[in-house]
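Researcher: Please translate sequence to structure tokens.
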Amino acid sequence: MSDGIQWLVGLENWMSSVVFARGISAQELALRMGGDRDEATVPITDDQVMDLGIEAYRPCEDGDGVVRVGEQGGWSFALEYGHSTGGERLEEISSDGVEAVHYVPIQEHPPATVFYSRDGVSRCGFGLGEEIWRWGEEPDLLLADLVAAQVLDPDGATLLHPEDEPYTDTYRRTLGVVERRFGLSLSPAYLREARLPAYAVRGTPDMRI
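Model: Translation complete:
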């Protein structure tokens, strides 16, 4: 049974975001995000990332960024921690025919965001609960899906969710669209007990573990 990705709504652990990529291995995803092929840790849990000495912010210079990578359902994924690189490198990640989805699970304000790139081009993106504002080379790529899921009116400019609806319900509806359109899934175990190799993608975290 697929876990989908709707459970990521309201995520309360310290993972900052997740990148999905179809068409490359998990290791290649880490390399495209700035990792070193020869510098992966042994597989570690989410809790063990805290032992890597990540400084997410340093005055006047980059903080540290780390990813744990794996594969599920035909997609590779990178769980991002600290000052990671998925938001800056999504087009690079998606080069040479690869598809990439970046989900940033921020809470209600500002909203969580979804970005989709393919073949080195940013195709579409929007904030959850703010789907009337879409951007990218194909901003309406998911419009028919959003209309079918009753996220948007067919005019593409009217939100259909009730004003008093909890943002978590609104987010789940849109994440369901993304989940179904791209066939995304991610087991909650990866943010619990599962062990995955980790790579430094920015800064100088202590990767000896």
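Researcher: Any highlights?
Model: The first helix runs from residue 26 to 32.
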